[in-house]
């Protein structure tokens, strides 16, 4: 999706005003430096639960591990906007994406460069919302609600650690920072 305007999760009027107040972008002091700076992949996912507290997992068509609804940010898209878009695309429903639970840095692994992973709280879905879920079929073959412990054997180890931290943050408040699914040493 190409769009000349940034996509974000906030009030469009306030965002436009803030962007205007920022003024003209600064010129590069050394031309070409911006193009040489590293780029990170960024992804955002949402922790959705059913009335029994189980987590909603999607079964991707392109990999053997479970995931939570979400995906990679597009150019000029905020993590919150991407999380909402991806949940809508993958599940076919609108869900209330709330507070940020976790930011996790992932190292380079194989062909995949390092990345930042955001997890937001999606709250508890009503029975009507659960019944309305329609997996998109291209990226998601099906969805299932599982207790986090039961899902761990079907998750990448880093995702299991990340979701455990996100769930802990959900229950105890705050926002967590992690590296490869673990809180860094102090």
From TrEMBL:
This is NUDIX hydrolase. Keywords: Hydrolase, Magnesium. InterPro entries: NUDIX_hydrolase-like_dom_sf, NUDIX_hydrolase_CS, NUDIX_hydrolase_dom. GO terms for molecular function: hydrolase activity. Its cofactor is Mg(2+). It comes from Amycolatopsis ultiminotia. Gene3D superfamilies: Nucleoside Triphosphate Pyrophosphohydrolase. Residues 38-169 form the Nudix hydrolase domain. The keyword S-adenosyl-L-methionine does not apply. It comes from the Bacteria. Pfam families: NUDIX. Transmembrane segments: none annotated.
């Amino acid at each position: 999706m190409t769009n000349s305007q940034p996509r974000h999760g906030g009030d469009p009027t306030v965002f436009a005003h803030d962007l205007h107040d920022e003024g003209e972008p600064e010129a590069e002091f050394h031309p070409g430096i911006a193009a040489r700076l590293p780029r990170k992949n960024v992804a955002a996912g949402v922790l959705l639960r059913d009335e029994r507290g189980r987590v909603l997992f999607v079964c991707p068509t392109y990999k053997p591990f479970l995931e939570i609804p979400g995906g990679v940010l597009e150019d000029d898209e905020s993590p919150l906007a991407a999380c909402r878009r991806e949940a809508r695309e993958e599940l076919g429903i609108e869900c209330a994406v709330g507070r940020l639970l976790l930011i996790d840095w992932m190292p380079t692994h194989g062909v995949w460069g390092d990345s930042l992973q955001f997890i937001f709280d999606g709250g508890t879905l009503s029975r009507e919302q659960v019944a309305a879920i329609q997996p998109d079929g291209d990226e998601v073959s099906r969805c299932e609600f599982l207790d986090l412990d039961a899902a761990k054997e079907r998750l990448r180890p880093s995702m299991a650690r990340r979701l455990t931290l996100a769930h802990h943050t959900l229950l105890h408040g705050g926002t967590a920072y992690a590296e490869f699914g673990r809180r860094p040493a102090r």
